[in-house]
Design brief:
single chain, six-stranded antiparallel beta sheet, 9 helices, Serine Threonine Protein Phosphatase 5, Tetratricopeptide repeat, 239 residues, alpha+beta, 2 domains
Length: 239
């Protein structure tokens, strides 16, 4: 393919991506959205369907899924449930890449990412009328959902995992639950303990962290610290 044809193809894709197609009332009524899905079920779908290198360690927090639609370039329109998620997953070196905000649609039990360039998507309001992310003429009187920040509990778990003392204190002062639970019911204290962050462990205990709390595997923070060989943290937790 010569350069001219490549350029024409790129221009065509950009043009197609910029044209919003709002579904008709008939399409909305006939669409199969599937059964209502909970936030935790959507998060599980993101964990298992996003191709993470280590899905079990991924930190995921999603908004409540809502009925919606999405159409990507040259693809048929999809109907299902849409949610915005805060994701922090590990790279090949075993380190977390940082929190990213992503949009997904779960259609016919298959998870699809809503790409950044794609504006052809939207939720349904209470009257089952469609509106898209660009606030088109068909939705000029509908308030577009504001972009949400990562859930404060997810942020606290990440800060505790990273040993970020100032972030932990800041999040707790902003109202984060010191005993919030992440994947497999792991708490911030457990994350701090299994990563050897002594100062964060002390901060969380001072702020009321439950040292006897157990995760889904029945392990306490002290057990996690023991497994990792952090005897200094084990002593603090067993006082």
């Amino acid at each position: 393919m010569n350069c001219f044809r490549k350029m024409c193809l790129i221009i065509s894709f950009v043009a197609l991506g910029g044209c919003a197609t709002v579904p008709t009332k008939y399409e909305i009524q006939q669409a199969n959205y599937g059964t209502q899905i909970s936030k935790s079920e959507f998060e599980s779908a993101v964990r298992n369907g996003s191709g993470f290198l280590d899905p079990y360690s991924a930190m995921i927090g999603c908004t409540d899924p809502k009925k919606g639609w999405e159409q990507d370039v040259l693809e048929p329109m999809k109907f299902g449930y849409i949610a915005q998620c805060s994701v922090n997953a590990k790279n090949r070196m075993g380190g977390y890449v940082g929190v990213e905000t992503r949009m997904y649609i779960l259609s016919n039990r298959i998870l699809y990412p809503i790409r950044l360039y794609n504006e052809n998507w939207g939720f349904l309001n209470s009257q089952e009328a469609a509106f898209d992310g660009r606030k088109s003429e068909a939705a000029s009187n509908v308030e577009i959902p504001t972009v949400v920040t990562p859930e404060i509990g997810v942020k606290l778990n990440i800060a505790a995992m990273d040993g970020n003392e100032s972030a932990v204190l800041d999040l707790l002062n902003k109202g984060a639950n010191v005993n919030t639970r992440g994947y497999k019911n792991v708490t911030p204290l457990m994350f701090a303990a299994l990563n050897g962050h002594v100062n964060v462990v002390n901060i969380l205990i001072e702020k009321g962290a439950d040292i006897n709390s157990k995760d889904s595997d029945g392990k306490t923070a002290a057990m996690h610290a023991t497994d990792k060989g952090y005897s200094n943290i084990v002593k603090i937790l067993n006082k």
